[in-house]
Amino acid sequence: MIKRYLLAPGPTPVPSEALLAMAMPIIHHRSPDFLPVLDAAKKGLQWLFQTKNDVLILCSSGTGGMVGSVNNFFSPGDRALVINAGNFGERWTKIAHAYGLEVREIKQEWGYTVKLDDVEKALKDDPSIKGVFVQATETSTGVYHDIETLASLVKKYEDKILIVDAISALVAHDLKMDEWGIDVMIGGSQKGLMLPPGLAFVGISDKAWRFADRAKCPRFYFNFKKERESLAKNQTNFTSPVTLIIGLNECLKLLQKEGLENAFERHRRIANATREAVKALGLRLFSQESSSNSVTAVIAPDGLDGQEIYKNLRVKYGITAAGGQGQAKGKIFRVAHLGYADTFDVITAIAGVEMVLKSMGYPVKFGSGVAVAEELLMQ
Length: 379
Known about the structure:
This protein is of the alpha/beta class and about 375 residues long. It folds into 2 domains: about 130 residues, Aspartate Aminotransferase, domain 1 (Alpha-Beta Complex); about 240 residues, Type I PLP-dependent aspartate aminotransferase-like (Major domain) (Aspartate Aminotransferase, domain 2, 3-Layer(aba) Sandwich), CATH 3.40.640.10. About 40% of the residues lie in helices and about 15% in strands. The protein contains 14 helices and 15 strands. The strands form 4 sheets. A 7-stranded mixed sheet has the order 2-10-9-8-5-3-4, sandwiched between helices. The chain has a 4-stranded antiparallel sheet with strand order 11-12-15-14, covered by helices on one side. The chain has a two-stranded parallel sheet with strand order 1-13. Strand 8, helix 7 and strand 9 form a beta-alpha-beta unit. Helix 5 runs parallel beside helix 6 and helix 12 crosses helix 13.
């Protein structure tokens, strides 16, 4: 028997409180029983997104929220600035092209954060840009972009909005939507929110809603105006994912009990311990600057395949982490510390990495990484 450990950057483990709540008999999504359920979820998401505005709940993966954040605020031919610093930055470009937007990319070398001077220059040089698209955490590289400063650049312009994919960053990083001036922010259920896949969340500023009034891109399922109208009545536009929303309320209760600042600090603490433990093993981080609190991307030692490290963790020790994506495939492996994660998830991950690397011929002194993690996690 092999016990399984889920340490991937999505899906992440689900706490028992949510699992038990989702095991209750189903209720109808248009019945009076469901109204208080969605009302609680609506208020909890406003708290989490740090916004006074509604946060829409969509029955989709996070990518559905990304798609809706293109076709609800823009028209074919509009100019968009995409920060492309990894696999998910590339996804923004693909979605924008699918809806006929003209894309200007700032291509950043993988492993590095966007240079804010480049963004500022692009906005000044090209007044026709209407939207700036970015990841908070670029999950494929383990990099966190400076969203606060980026928002301060974009909010100077009344004719431009900032759209942030916070799918992997939400809960792990402090993202003050209203205070910073983030116009559209997207989350997903299977990351920091500790739920199974299936829900996307989209927070929208007043400024972005004015863009929605003029947008001409086609939309049907991801129609944010209709979702907002439904949410005012504690409904969703189409069939509500009732079970997931019941689980969402349980996870929000856990986070509210912990407190937002404490949740951010927990993620910072375990992320730091993971990074320092990895370096104690003689390994290098793929993120060269501004590492994310959600996931640590590690460069595979010379002569070893990152995909094989990821595979051996899962097959030999039951630890599901993640491999590299796109141009980083085979070069790195990734360990998440996101959502329902704490001290012994890090120790398990580092111990597993030590054992796998030793079995693959890499010179490891057992306990060298674990000792560093333990020291930091006790502080």
